[in-house]
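Everyone, study these two lines:
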Amino acid sequence: MLGRELAQPQAGGAEQPGRRAARAARARLAADPARPWTTASPASALAVSRATLSRRFPAAIGQSPAAYLAQWRMDLATARLRRTLDPVESIAARVGHGSGTGRRPRSPGPSPGRGG
């Protein structure tokens, strides 16, 4: 997900307002992952209701705002762990994972030794 471009409007047509709001919300989440976001935060900034954003975001992006943000934070942390020698706690704080608990972020997928 790291570095993935935001979906662009389809050629030959104007972007639907719901998709535009979802893309704008995703851009806000991605720009400041350490912020303690709620669904209401970007919704309010975009002048749509929390319920409206909760419907539009998954329809346009493919996952809920909370799931997107959790994955984005994990992707950012993983990239920083791979390319820096920064302490886990520092990286965790920079991407919004709180104290970091002294552990490296868990990768998506099955745990090692669990098959798969």
About this structure: Confidence is low (pLDDT under 50) at residues 1-12. The radius of gyration is 16 Å. Helices lie at 17-31, 40-45, 50-61, 65-83, 88-95.
